[in-house]
Amino acid sequence: DQIEEVIEFINSRPRPLAMYYFDYDQARADYISQHTHSGHFGINMVITHVAQDDLPFGGIGASGMGKYHGPEGFFGLSHERSVMSNPKLYSLKYILPPFNKPIHRFISKTLLR
């Protein structure tokens, strides 16, 4: 099965800070999310997790390491993986270049705060 080959390919390499997957099939996206490792898993969206101040986000393995003493160590080494999903692929026009001026201003304000 090609999906299993893809999962094996991903898992045989260093764990990425973020992984983005695009598909109309939510069950397949969920399956890949559950069978791969990454700091963040985005479904039909990219980089928007950076703008979420309260989202638990960080690397795993080669892409990051948490704290390791006391209760902070437990939480630092316990990985809460963020997963976001956008069911409509057509909405990518709002987050992919070229950006119109209002979108460009919003992205600049969000990323440069």
UniProtKB/TrEMBL annotation:
InterPro entries: Ald_DH/histidinol_DH, Ald_DH_C, Ald_DH_N, Aldehyde_DH_dom, Aldehyde_DH_NAD(P). One of its GO terms (cellular component) is cytoplasm. Keywords: NAD, Oxidoreductase. Transmembrane segments: none annotated. It holds the Pfam family Aldedh. The keyword NAD applies. GO terms for molecular function: aldehyde dehydrogenase (NAD+) activity. The keyword Cytoplasm does not apply. One of its GO terms (biological process) is aldehyde metabolic process. Gene3D superfamilies: Aldehyde Dehydrogenase, Chain A, domain 1, Aldehyde Dehydrogenase, Chain A, domain 2. Residues 2-75 form the Aldehyde dehydrogenase domain. Belongs to the aldehyde dehydrogenase family. This is Aldehyde dehydrogenase family protein. It comes from Acinetobacter baumannii.
